[in-house]
Design a protein that fits this description.
219 residues, alpha+beta, Glutaredoxin, Glutathione S-transferase Yfyf (Class Pi), Chain A, domain 2, 2 domains, 58% helix, binds glutathione
């Protein structure tokens, strides 16, 4: 019996977990969930209610995307994502944590300012400043993180070495989200090295498979 992965196609955390599982070639049965109607079995396994969640045949549950990546790659790591030759695991984990702390919150506020009304409006919803200004402020903060990535990528093709590694695969789905929101604005604002890095990773055939819809897989 294979492990079960509860996933959501467009979730960047789930994307990175699926990508590592695919590259590792580990047999996993994927269940696409509707975030508004999460299956009871998933919530029973992981009450915090976020995807991805991996339930192993022996009942163990891994419910953090980075842990799922490391679990899969620990079994088979054909591209040496866990040990890229340059850069240590600690330095990759620090970069991934920085993305979570210094990029993701700004990405969310840039993309979905209305969800953060409390931060730019009064408690009764009266705006104290423009929603668009709030969004632009967070676009700029997210961009600052990408400038840091650009500095790294000026010196090498990947974030820690010449070849993609855990850090690249864990971070690029979030950068993709920002690029897809307003591609032209993104292209004008971020270093060319970041664009090239992102486009190169996203053009990989395995990423196309990671993003395939359930219906396309069955076809
Ligand atoms: N730290 C978690 C974060 C996962 C996460 O936040 N996933 C989002 C979707 S992208 C989610 O499931 N949110 C719950 C919801 O939208 O109901 C991980 O790395 O797996």
């Amino acid at each position: 019996m294979p492990a079960t992965l509860y996933t959501f196609r467009r979730c960047p955390y789930a994307m990175r977990a699926r990508w590592a599982i695919l590259v590792a070639g580990v047999a996993v049965e994927q269940r696409e969930v509707a975030l508004r109607h999460k299956p009871a079995a998933m919530l029973e396994a992981s009450p915090k209610g976020t995807v991805p969640v991996l339930v192993l045949p022996d009942g163990r549950v891994i419910d953090q995307s980075l842990d799922i990546m490391r679990w899969a790659l620990a079994q088979h790591d054909p591209e040496h994502w866990l040990a890229p030759g340059q850069g240590t695991m600690d330095s990759m984990l620090m970069l991934i944590a920085a993305c979570e702390r210094e990029f993701k919150p700004h990405l969310d506020r840039y993309k979905y300012p209305s969800r953060y009304r409390g931060e730019w409006g009064t408690p009764d919803g009266e705006p104290t400043r423009q929603e668009s200004a709030f969004s632009a402020e967070h676009f700029n903060k997210a961009r600052q993180f990408l400038t840091q990535l650009g500095d790294r990528l000026a010196a090498r093709a990947g974030l820690v070495g010449q070849a993609p590694a855990l850090a690249d695969i864990a971070i690029v789905p979030f950068v993709r989200q920002m690029a897809r929101h307003e591609r032209t604005r993104f292209e004008q604002a971020v270093p060319g090295s970041v664009l090239q890095w992102m486009d190169g990773l996203l053009a990989r055939p395995d990423f196309q498979l990671v993003m395939q819809k359930q219906s396309e897989k069955q076809a």
